[in-house]
Amino acid sequence: MEKKLIMEKSMVGITSAWIMDKWGLLFPAIMLLTILMITDYISGMLAAKKEALDYPDNKNYGWNSKKSLIGIYKKVGYLLLILVGISTDFILFKFSIQIGIKFEHNTIFGLMVSVWLIINELLSILENAGRMGAKLPSFLNKVLAELHNSIEKDLK
Fold it and tell me: Is there a contact between 112 and 151 (Cβ–Cβ < 8 Å)?
């Protein structure tokens, strides 16, 4: 049963990357990721502020410039991951043409990385909303977590 579930999740990740490739959705995916990264950063700051109000005497809660800076570094790292994915796509596409192999898809790795990061950001935004006191729809959290895990397993 678990093997079947893993196979289905893998197919969802691969199929979504293939569809995005066919429709030329790499740029919109990167724009969506950028918007989600900004939203995640802001929602993280708001959640920290809310926690500071809830626990005024506890220094473990509240906004922390070091954590904030680490978050920015992580987001820059995300952009570097996409650059590596796109570069891999470019190399495979260009060299396949040079050696006479027809490689129809030119953005698979960039898209797979982008989709994985988008799901990661969505999970983080949900977590921040929960920290701010919002009631989280369990079905949405489960779906995003399963998608994230399936793509992560595909990348291993």
Answer: yes
